[in-house]
Amino acid sequence: MNAYPIEIAFPDLGAHAAGNAGVPYVHTFDSGIAGPHVMINALTHGNEVCGAIVVDALLRAGLRPRRGKLTLAFANVEAYQRFDAAQPDASRFVDQDFNRVWTAKTLDDTSRDSSELRRARAMRPVIDTVDWLLDLHSMHEKSKPLIVAGPLDKGIELSAQLGTPATVICDEGHPEGRRMRDYEGFGDPASAKNALLVECGQHWEAGAVTVARDVTARFLALSGVVEKADLPAGWIQPSPQEMLVVRVTEPVVAKSMDFRFAGDYTGLEVFPHAGSVIGWSDGAPVKTPYDDCMLVMPSLRQLRPGVTVVRLGKIERRIPSVQGQ
């Protein structure tokens, strides 16, 4: 596997440790004027630093909402603080994936305990009040950025309004457990709440920070809690000409440590013919189930039994970008 260079500096988050919302590293600002509660979340995974750079910058700039509420949060700080450049993938989490615990049943089950569950339970009262969530992520492999919009039409619609990145992934999540972006009202078609997860690029590439700044500025302006003029200059980038909507049809889950890909895939590769061999699981070939099958975020860096190593996507439609810049 490729060893990617670390092109970005990791911010010291100590100045934000106290928070102001009754939860360490979580800051909520209330304008006192009616409006949505909007949250920008970083460090769902401890080695995904681009979001932390953006949230740190907004806190240091003193950004405040003109209407509604604004929450700026760092999630798995304990994992982040364990980052080791010699083992950069090891600080994704401490005990379990923070982004696989987001059901009320899991969070209410006091027989279960982990660093990530304790942190999720602490953050839950704040997240329960959020109307719009932007969860900033990055990827194991160097791939073009993408939006993970969830399975619902409202996620696609919000993605189109955001206007970037160019690829919108619609999916049901992971067999391992539910993501924050699908928690409660975010994943309920009858709820006005909405969430997007943006994969900004490879974990440590400078370009991921540019994407994270762009989508954050757009999201905040689109929500109406701030005006564009309130945001740092130069964050919003040109829009793509169009956006491609891709529906995930199935995950490929490792049965054991015996899994390998047929090529050096990094994501968004399209196989024109059904039956193309993309890898082997316990010696058995893994084949594309239909024509024009797209690989979504393939990676073996977190390989273990039960982990999704790639998702298979069908190109559903193209939509024009609505935010020409």
Overall description:
- The protein is of the alpha/beta class and 325 residues long.
- The chain has 2 domains: 229 residues, Aminopeptidase (3-Layer(aba) Sandwich), CATH 3.40.630.10; 72 residues, Beta Barrel (OB fold (Dihydrolipoamide Acetyltransferase, E2P)), CATH 2.40.50.
- 19% of the residues lie in helices and 26% in strands.
- It is built from 6 helices and 14 strands.
- The strands form 2 sheets. An 11-stranded mixed sheet has the order 1-3-2-4-7-5-6-8-14-13-10. A 3-stranded antiparallel sheet has the order 9-11-12, with no helix packed on it.
- β11 and β12 form a beta hairpin.
- α1 packs across α6.
- The protein starts with 25 loop residues before the first strand and ends in a 5-residue tail after the last strand.
Keywords, separated by commas or semicolons:
single chain; 325 residues; Aminopeptidase; 11-stranded mixed β-sheet; 3-stranded antiparallel β-sheet; 19% helix
Strand order of the largest sheet: 1-3-2-4-7-5-6-8-14-13-10
User: What is the domain tally?
Assistant: 2
Structural class: alpha/beta
Would you count the extended β strands for me?
14
**Radius of gyration, CA atoms, in whole angstroms:** 19 Å
